[in-house]
């Protein structure tokens, strides 16, 4: 009986983790691979280059988001004063 509860609990935990992973992966935009000789994107931006450039762009984007989050003022709680 104890083993069955352990197995059911493990399955529930795995299902929750799978749902969280699926949610996180669906929120990440999928980069479009640029084909050689393809025209620029419709929004006027140039298509992404090689993997190194894409990685650098991703690093810059994450760095900007972190810096923006660090610049936001934290709310002050009344109990902290």
Explain how this protein is built.
There is one protein chain. The protein is an all-alpha fold. The protein contains two helices and no strands.
Percent range for β-strand residues: under 5%
Low-confidence stretches: none
What's the multimeric state? single chain
Q: What is the helix fraction of residues, given as a range? A: 55-70%
If you average the pLDDT, what whole number results?
A: 80
Radius of gyration: 22 Å
User: In DSSP terms, counting alpha (H) and pi (I) runs of 4 or more, how many helices?
Assistant: 2
Q: How would you describe the shape?
A: flat
What's a quick, concise take on this entry?
The chain is an all-alpha fold and 81 residues long. Helices cover 58% and strands 0% of the residues.
Key features of this structure:
81 residues, flat, 2 helices, mainly alpha
List the helices and strands and how they pair.
Blueprint: H1 2-27, H2 51-71
């Amino acid at each position: 009986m104890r083993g069955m509860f352990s197995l059911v609990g493990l399955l529930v935990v795995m299902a929750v983790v799978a749902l969280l992973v699926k949610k996180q992966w669906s929120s990440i935009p999928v980069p479009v691979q640029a084909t050689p000789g393809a025209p620029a994107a419709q929004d006027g931006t140039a298509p992404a280059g090689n993997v190194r450039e894409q990685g650098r762009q991703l690093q810059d984007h994450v760095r900007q988001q972190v810096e923006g989050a660090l610049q936001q003022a934290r709310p002050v709680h009344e109990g902290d004063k």
